[in-house]
Amino acid sequence: MNNTFNLNKITRPDLSSLEPYVAELHPGIIKMDANENPFDFPPEITTEIWRRLGGQTFTRYPDPVAQELVKALSLYTGVSPSGIMVGNGSDELILNLMLAFGTGGKVLIATPTFSMYRIHAQVAAAQPVSIPRGNNFELDIDAISEAAKLPESRMVIICSPNNPTGNASSLEEIAAVLETCPKTLVVVDEAYIEFGGQTCIPLLERYPNLVVLRTFSKAFGLAGLRVGYMLAGEHVIKELMRVKQPFNLNVFSQMAALLVLEHRQVFQDQLAQILHDRDFVISQLTNLPEIAVFPTVTNFVLFRTKFPASAIYQFLLENGILIRNCSGPGLEECLRVSVGREEENRLFLAKLKLALESKHDM
Ligand SMILES: *Cc1c(COP(=O)(O)O)cnc(C)c1O
Predict the structure, then answer these.
(1) How confident is the model over 263-290, as pLDDT tens digits?
(2) Whose CA is nearest to atom 14 of ligand 1?
(3) What is d(CA 281, CA 349) in angstroms, rounded to the nearest whole number?
């Protein structure tokens, strides 16, 4: 009898093609690659968090359903608490959607878009199916509704505003998808909605198959604390409770998110600044003949270069600036830069000009 342990005998063959998500870590670099809020977290909110922590805050398990936070989110969104679920980042909620509804079926994804939908679909043994967007990255509603008719189709995922393309789908387009895909869930990821685009919240009352995802990671500056939330019908939330980790959102993050909502005005002022600075970045990029800029309603800008995107990416990295190389199907030679602080944006633009000049010389 062979008693040696062979890992290959117990690994899932369907996961062998799955590349683990890689987040680039470069200490000391200017980070313009992940669309985070570029400002320091408001110190007055940090002080308030510490003030509210009791002696047993860390010794006890957190509230599994984060009642206080859900109540505050209900006031903020107008959705009743029974239609709200919080997660350890919206990433966890995406995985939970896949586990509750996707496993064994097809998940239709309007691409190019955020990579976690495909990754989590595969993790949950659902089949991700790419439904390509049009020339201006608009939804192909006919193709989506055709694919949704397949009996194995379980959900449609639409990111709006879309990462990394920056464009938003209109409420009319989302409503058209909901009308033509009545048998599947339609998940709309609104991670960037605070920056622009129309929210689908008004459609929740009419469509029991609509799910809206939101996050505190972008506009609200809490990427490191991992807080996301979902708005959906009560029946959808009930199903998701079956797969949810009971203590998914830690006490500290629950408290921080609650205080962020209470201090929303600080973030409104930051948002206005970011949008103003974004328009400056766009105007400067538009002046560069080697660059084509795509319209955006978000805090990031997608652009295509005449030169290999990997070379521009590498040049910027060597010059202390990290952006995202998005080059791939539908996004050939495309890069995405997150709007930073004013001085970071200026440095990015200066180094990008140098990068383009260096490529001309080659
Ligand atoms: C950044 C991002 C998220 C974020 O998720 P968290 O897990 O909440 O940090 C979700 N969706 C999209 C499209 C994103 O770009």
Answers:
(1) 999 999 999 999 999 999 999 999 999 9
(2) 191
(3) 8
> What is the predicted pLDDT for the residue at 27?
87
Q: How far does residue 74's CA lie from ligand 1's centre (Å)?
A: 20
Question: Is the shortest distance between the CB of 91 and ligand 1 below 6 Å?
Answer: yes
Beta carbon of 159 within 6 Å of any ligand 1 atom: yes
- State the pLDDT at residue 214: 98
What pLDDT score does 361 carry? 66
Sites in the chain below the pLDDT cut of 70: 1, 361-362
pLDDT reported for residue 362: 58
94, 116 Cβ separation under 8 angstroms: yes
State the closest ligand 1 atom to the C-alpha of 93, by its place in the atom list counted from 1: 7
CB-ligand 1 contact for 229 (6 Å cutoff): no
Ligand 1 contact, 215 CB (< 6 A): yes
